[in-house]
Amino acid sequence: MSQYIYNFENGTLGGEYDIDIPANGAPAVTANVDNAHPAHGSLSIRADSSSSYQYVQKNLPSAVTDIAVRYYIYDDAIQAADYDDLRFYSTTTDAGATNRAGGIRRIGSNKLRVFDSLGASIWASTNALSINTYYRIEIRIQCGASANATMSGAYYVGDSTTPVETFSVATATTTANILSVHMGKQQTAANTPSTLHTWYDELAIDDAPTGLIGPWSNPGNTAPIGEAGIMQTNVEPFSTVTLDGSSSHDPDADPLTYAWSQTAGPAVTLSSTTAMQPTFIAPATLAGTTLTFQLIVNDGTVNSTADTVDIVVAAHTMWRIDNPVGPVLSPIRLTLI
After folding, report:
1. How far is CA 100 from CA 104, 109, 175, 268, 320, in A?
2. How far apart, in whole angstroms, are the C-alpha atoms of residue 199 and residue 38?
3. Cβ atoms within 10 A of the Cβ of 199, count?
4. With pLDDT > 70 as the criterion, what percentage of the chain qualifies?
5. Which domains does the chain have, with CATH numbers?
């Protein structure tokens, strides 16, 4: 028995996310890491290309005949065309519809449909999925060469234990076994406009299930991650500088508090030591100087590791103005410092 859970928290915001690569070395089909609508942590994945498939693929170490999968899905626009969110395959190659064991797609009006190895619908939801709502999708496939094969499951609002709708369908049209699971946008460009409005999270796979996997279980508090922003260079003296802690995040999606402090360079006054993006006025300097600031965030339970950022103030020519002495028409004297 093996269970696999992917919450995408080890991904890089804005970067591509891979679990496994198709065995035939097919072109990249990776989805991208996003932080707009995570289910539980701070990151999720979404397709952001209207011209290609974008999904994550998990290859199993050996073929199985019974498998359960759970994932979370969020839409911020109504689904207008059919496309697949989840596919099961009896191969680890990027095979399109070939060797497909079945899966879940959404059809026009944002309804769910369970399909068999031929792509034919064997169950469709009565209700449409609402936008701006996280749903948990659960499915179990028990393969078979005759009509005793079964595809069963349900969908729920978030972590509710009360299903919105359930299904259990006997079918003769699944493959004999399953070797990989694909989650994400899996359809041609003609059907992609609304896929750009879909987020996926918390993919869980059980290759020896006794039932459905069930809702996400909080593993306990995880320390937040503080991000003090990127180095700023060639900053002009007397200009306003903004520090940026907005990339800080918490794996448990807990709200954060911020604590800024200066650790090096000429002392300056921050507009706030607890704001996400405090400001200060760059100091005057002749030869240039570097100021270092430290950020620690807290999730209400524990502090993050300190993160620092350098602000490099550029060298600047300075003049001293001497007040005239003597007759009213005496010239002002400028002295290069």
Report:
1. 12, 25, 7, 63, 79
2. 8
3. 22
4. 83
5. 3-206 (2.60.120.200), 232-319 (2.60.40.10)
- Flag the least confident range among 61-75, 177-191, 289-303: 177-191
Residue 285 CA to residue 277 CA, distance in Å, equals 24
Q: Are 168 and 15 in contact (CB under 8 A)?
A: no
Separation CA 196–CA 7 (nearest Å): 20
Task: Note the Cα 61 to chain centre separation in Å.
Answer: 26
Which residues are within 8 A (CB) of 328 and not within 5 positions of it... i.e. 6 or more apart? none
Question: Residue 213 carries which DSSP code?
Answer: -
Region 161-185 average pLDDT: 87
Q: Which two tokens stand for residue 100?
A: 């497909």
The terminus-to-terminus CA distance of the chain in angstroms comes to: 76
pTM as predicted? 0.64
How far apart (Å, rounded) are the C-alpha atoms in residues 251 and 38? 10
pLDDT single digits (tens) 7-19: 898 889 988 888 8
CA atoms in the 13 A half-sphere facing the CB of 282: 24
